[in-house]
Specification:
The complex is a heterodimer of chains A (295) and B (297). Chain A contains 14 helices and no strands. With 295 residues, chain A is an all-alpha fold. In chain A, helix 5 runs parallel beside helix 8. The relative contact order of chain A is 0.12. Chain B has one domain (62-296): MetI-like (MetI-like fold, Orthogonal Bundle), CATH 1.10.3720. In chain B, 72% of the residues lie in helices and 1% in strands. A two-stranded antiparallel ribbon of chain B has the order 1-2. In chain B, helix 4 crosses helix 16 (261-285). In chain B, 46% of the residues are buried. Classes of the chains: A mainly alpha (295), B mainly alpha (297). The interface between A and B is large, with 114 and 113 residues.
């Protein structure tokens, strides 16, 4: 068999060696070009945002857009900070932390139950329900959610954003966490159980430490979604003092649309905390993400 | 199994309750609204006052509205075009990133940056960047870049697809990177012994082996494209005219700007049905024997 295929292959190649080499070169060349080209496409707008945010308006109109600011100014940042952005920042922090901590905790408990209670029809059904949730654009349920929030007298509060956000984070979190808890060797559970540990005890002292990377991944991934969320605050709040950052960005842009450097400074300021967090947790996020989705 | 054999009656009790908090949250804010939106599609509600039954009138008016086929068309146009742009590029970049060279890991870090920005921030940036008078084109005096990008129907649609790709290709590249790294290297070794060139290896090993990764990534792209609300809302607000008025935006405008929650709910039901149908079709493409793979997806 092997002989036959290699014989076929040799007969297929008219100039052995050279054609293989050339093909190899061509594909590497293609991938490499695409890779560096994409880097340029990603970096150019980001570079432009950052340098423009340090220019004053006259420099913005006069200068080459890619030139570094001749007289860098922090006035744009000052304007943004004076426009109540610390308040919006705080709102975003409260909403994100208020969503992610309970969401990941309850998703972890559910994932633990789904793995440990395998065989239970009830838990299989719960798992199926969450998997179905992945296929449904949950934003489509925004009108009843709006009605629900009004009926709960939560309209125009941070809790109005937090509660649906928790629910929307659950399907993906449960999916990724079940994948990781499944990898914990069954023998470990068994030996702990023999030692008299309760399920709750095993969840805390066995499953939790062993799946910590997955918990971090899920927290960052969902945290990004909530931090950057726009639709829920747009629909479920109205007062300026309840605005999270993305909504504040949008209104700020509406107000100062002519002052492009200031608008871009607001973009930089709202992204900076995330970039810092990314710099810290990047390794776990990238590896967790590929592990979570590529199984 | 071991626990069951040990005969611990009621063991699944303490485990099952652990799923309850997540279940309750998901039922209240996910499942109930899912049925709620169907109910609301048969009512009349302005968003503030009383909700009155309206029979089939919303469905009749929405289905006979020429705005609906247009919104559907724009939604599918964006879905398909952005899939066509994103998939080959993500695949190519994913294969590239799967190489173990250090600089590729460094590139992966930079690729991820667009994912950190909110859609609102990205839309605001591109709005400024593409401004015909003050944007990049005018500043650099490049005629090609100095167009009324968001003022012409086809250009605006192209911009939306470009910005979507800019935002999401990095994410999908990483998914493909993970997929490529799971392909056993022995397959490539065997193929190159058999004399298959890199290009041939790519199409006869890499692509078929990535089948499930492609399905996962495509499902996320396609279902995700139904929810491109914030990006389009901030970038074009559906304009010029209604050139980029996708279904999600149509729902928002009918419901929260025109205060017609009934017709908006009809659109929402359509969105749910389309999302489910697409997910089922993509799952079917994966074949029925792959339940466990699908679960992982």
């Amino acid at each position: 068999m092997a002989v036959a295929t290699s014989a076929q292959a040799t007969s297929r190649r008219e100039a052995p060696g050279t054609s293989y080499g050339r093909k190899l070169l061509r594909l590497n060349w293609l991938g490499g070009t695409a890779g560096w080209l994409w880097l340029v496409i990603v970096i150019v707008p980001i570079y432009w945002i950052v340098i423009t945010s340090f220019k004053d308006q006259s420099a913005f109109f006069a200068q080459n857009p890619f030139a570094l600011p001749a007289e860098p100014t922090l006035a744009n940042y000052q304007l943004v900070i004076e426009s109540d952005f610390p308040r919006y920042f705080l709102n975003s922090v409260i909403i994100t932390a208020g969503t992610i901590i309970p969401a990941v905790a309850i998703a972890f408990m559910a994932a633990y139950a789904i793995i440990r209670g395998a065989g239970s029809k009830f838990l299989a059904g719960v798992n199926g329900l969450f998997l179905m949730g992945l296929a449904i654009p949950l934003q489509a349920t925004i009108i009843p959610v709006y009605l629900l929030i009004i009926k709960m007298h939560l309209y125009d509060s941070l809790l109005a954003i937090i509660l649906p956000s928790i629910a929307f984070s659950i399907p993906l979190s449960v999916l990724v966490l079940t994948n990781f808890i499944r990898d914990v060797p069954k023998e470990l559970f068994e030996s702990m159980r023999v030692d008299g540990a309760t399920e709750w005890g095993m969840l805390r002292s066995l499953a939790l430490p062993l799946t910590r990377p997955a918990l971090v991944t899920v927290s960052i991934y969902n945290g990004l979604g909530v931090w950057n969320g726009f639709l829920l605050p747009l629909i479920l709040t109205q007062s300026p003092d309840k605005r999270p950052l993305p909504l504040a960005l949008w209104t700020f842009q509406g107000q100062y649309s002519v002052n492009v450097p200031a608008v871009l400074a607001s973009v930089v300021l709202t992204t900076l905390p995330i970039v810092v967090l990314y710099a810290i947790g990047r390794r776990q996020l990238l590896s967790g993400l590929t592990a979570g989705f590529s199984r | 199994m071991g626990t069951r054999a040990a005969g611990q009656v009621g063991r699944s009790g303490p485990v099952a309750w652990m799923a309850l908090p997540a279940l309750v949250f998901f039922l209240v804010f996910g499942v109930v609204p899912l049925f709620g939106v169907l109910v609301l599609s048969f009512t009349q509600w302005d968003g503030i006052g009383a909700i009155n039954p309206a029979g089939l009138s919303n469905w009749r008016s929405v289905l006979s509205d020429p705005g609906l086929p247009h919104a559907l068309w724009v939604t599918f146009e964006i879905m398909i075009l952005s899939w066509l742009v994103q998939t080959p590029l993500s695949l190519l970049l994913g294969v590239f990133l799967a190489g173990r060279q250090r600089y590729r890991a460094f590139l992966a870090v930079l690729y991820f940056v667009p994912l950190l920005l909110s859609s609102a921030a990205i839309a605001i940036t591109y709005k400024a960047l593409l401004d015909p008078n003050f944007g990049l084109g005018a500043g650099l005096n490049i005629g090609f870049l100095t167009q009324d990008w968001l003022g012409k129907d086809n250009l605006a649609l192209g911009v939306v697809i470009f910005v979507v790709s800019w935002q999401f290709i990095p994410f999908h590249s990483l998914i493909y990177q993970g997929g490529v790294r799971q392909i056993p290297t022995t397959m490539y070794e065997a193929a190159s012994i058999d004399g298959a060139g890199r290009l041939r290896q790519f199409f006869s090993i890499t692509v078929p082996q990535l089948k499930y990764t492609i399905i996962t990534s495509s499902t996320l792209m396609v279902v995700g494209s139904l929810t491109f609300f914030d990006l389009i809302f901030v970038l074009t607000a559906g304009g010029p005219g209604d050139a980029t008025r996708v279904l999600a935006l149509d729902m928002y405008k009918r419901g929260f700007q025109a205060n017609l929650m009934g017709p908006a709910s009809v659109i929402a039901v359509l969105l749910v049905l389309i999302g489910l149908a697409l997910a089922l079709i993509l799952r079917r493409l994966g074949g029925s024997t792959t339940a466990s793979q699908q679960e992982g997806a």
